[in-house]
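Narrative summary of target 7.
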Amino acid sequence: MGDVTALAEEQLSALAAIVGADRVLDGPAGAEQYGRDWTRAHVPAPCAVVLPGSIAEVQSVVRYARRAGLAIVPSGGRTGLSAGAVAARGELVLVLDRLNGIDDFSPVDRTVRCGAGVVTAELQAYAEAKGLFYPVDFASAGSSQVGGNVATNAGGIKVIRHGMTRDWVVGVKLVTGTGELLDLNRGLIKNNAGYDLRHLVIGSEGTLGVIVEVTVSLADPPGDLAVMVLGVPDLGAIMDVLHCARGRLELHAFEFFSEEALARVVEHQELQRPFDTAAPFYALLEFAQPDEAALEAAMAVFEETVEQGWVLDGCVSQSVAQAQSLWRLREDISETISRWTPYKNDISTRVSDVPGFLAEVDAVVSEHYPDFQIIWFGHIGDGNVHLNVLKPDELPMDEFQARCGEVSRWVFEIVQRHGGSVSAEHGVGLLKKEYLSYSRSETEIELMRGIKRVFDPDGIMNPGKIFDL
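Modeled conformation, tokenized:
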């Protein structure tokens, strides 16, 4: 725990006058709870934590912070993996938990308005109760918040079918760095009246302002879904399976993971292997199964891929419970490997480039650090893969981090050659900031800085994240 920079008593009193005395925290407990996300590379050291209960209170806090020269870190569910919600330099943490209302549901428009603090799973449950579906989904849905999802343009497991968070946002309310409230797009489907500032805000990681409210669109429920897990001999075969399945199945997810990932999940989560045959890699396909014809199509895909040598073995779920069990083989990977303090990279390239891309990365890391174990998994159907390097037990953390810094630079050089992204879905935050130039030109970065200055002229909104001014 770092030294929490103390505010003067009159500053704490001014904040308490806005949000209430019990909603201002200035001790180490509040800093530890609210001053960091799931990353542990930076020690939290905010000056204070405030929990406003309305948009008006958020505006007042921002205006006061601007006058007092205080930097602000917006805080949602704090499930980020790029240190985007870390307050390590005496910032004021502005927590959105209390902005958690869901209202203004329109069955005609099929939209609903959410406070930024609404937990993703609560929105999903609300949509289900209305006979509809909110398709943005990921392992942290039970704790991540809608505002944070929008701020990072969260992706997850359904992107191949339903797209990113961006594709479901039809309105955003943002409090800028001057305390002004912007109401962007207002739920419209068609709106070509000038620049769509909504899409600048989505993915801006709190650097342009505080997202306080989001209007999202909802979809028809997906109906019955089945899951198939296939063992494949190499990554090229996974691409062949994807091409074959896309032509015959209504895919909702297409994930992959390595044998090393599966072995650890099976051992530590007490799960069963999907089948006896071990394979270097596995593909997990989720597909619509409205009738027997869909299952027959899935079996045809299996048979053809086996005949072609693309698949070694496989299984398909016969019940909802079995589908959930098969999903755990993929979704429990992050939790399982967390005990080895993995060094994570969230990278992407064009789907067709993934096999060669992964082979290059694997070869570079294996050559330089043969004692490091690599765990691969990810959303391979949309070109997004997660590289996890496990820390050897005997290696000190500082040395491991330093050596992984070298790994990242080699990996990002490969990303750059493939025209990919150093951050596919987790954001840039602090962890990826020095590598931004591998995916964005200097001209683009300078334009980003200029946009930030317009929204946040004093540079108080999540400073130091994504880039430095």
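The first helix runs from residue 9 to 19.
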